[in-house]
């Protein structure tokens, strides 16, 4: 299979997005559509080839159109990192849970960090977009970057979009910004100001990591509670739809969710990431 390779320096690109799944591809497309010159790196050669043909492997309204408009016109997709990276590198790789141990499987993250660590300079801003257990940016990523650069620029800026509305929400949702130092925060804020209406700067990498986890855990909890209401209603012989719909009508409190399937790559793993985070600090969950 023919490989798409970018040789040498890449001053023609302003950012490099590492990992072109849902999180990475929607972000790369949004930046490219805003006029930012983007290099998208996807190590899976088959996926890379399909993307270069304009084929998207998941549903996202408007994404195929942007991809076809911007391919080689602001967005370059490759399966091999160049020797020298653009000024900003954004990590968007998967962080699944090991089903056997219920602990984070960080192999994709470690591979991505190792690949970029040998290519960064003191001026390279590394932005982590992947969902992480609290403390991972500081305890795993930062030390690896410091093997190359004494004081690297590192930011954690979580993705909080929903599939199907990601292109809209990338521009409309507030973007949480955190960094290992003031310079990292300033650079990250400058970056996301190109596409978002509002940025929210928090005091630490760990704060931003936890914000992402509690957002998804809360969503999981809300959906799960709606299903529990339906099960209880069924046991009590009443109509769950009537119960929830009437309870919500003109009532100024958070809506009860209607029963339905709960799943997806985020909601099925992020509670485990939060549990793992607190276990590292001897916090015991009470169920």
Question: Short description, anyone?
Answer:
The chain is an alpha/beta fold and 287 residues long. The chain has helices at 22-33, 45-52, 63-70, 107-117, 136-146, 166-172, 182-192, 205-236, 240-248, 270-279, and strands at residues 15-18, 38-41, 75-78, 88-91, 97-98, 103-104, 125-128, 153-156, 175-179, 199-201. The longest helix is centred in the C-terminal third of the chain and has 32 residues, at 205-236.
In words, what does this structure look like?
It holds the Pfam family UDPG_MGDP_dh_N. Residues 14-186 form the UDP-glucose/GDP-mannose dehydrogenase N-terminal domain. Belongs to the UDP-glucose/GDP-mannose dehydrogenase family. The structure is a single chain. With 287 residues, this protein is of the alpha/beta class. 41% of the residues lie in helices and 13% in strands. The chain has 10 helices and 10 strands. The strands form 2 sheets. It has an 8-stranded mixed beta sheet, with helices on both faces. Helix 5 (136-146) links the parallel strand 7 and strand 8 (153-156). Residues 1-9 have low confidence and may be disordered.
How many helical elements? 10
| Proportion of residues in β-strands | 5-15%
The average pLDDT value, as a whole number, equals 94
Number of domains: 2
Low-pLDDT residue intervals, each spanning 5 or more residues: 1-9
CATH superfamily of the largest domain: NAD(P)-binding Rossmann-like Domain
As laid out across the biggest beta sheet, the strand order is: 3-2-1-4-7-8-9-10
Order of helices and strands: EHEHHEEEEHEHEHEHEHHH
**Main β-sheet, in a few words?**
8 strands, mixed
CATH architecture heading of the largest domain:
3-Layer(aba) Sandwich
CATH topology of the largest domain: Rossmann fold
The rounded Rg comes to 20 Å
Family: Belongs to the UDP-glucose/GDP-mannose dehydrogenase family.
Domain UDP-glucose/GDP-mannose dehydrogenase dimerisation: 206-285
Organism: Dictyobacter kobayashii
Domain UDP-glucose/GDP-mannose dehydrogenase N-terminal: 14-186
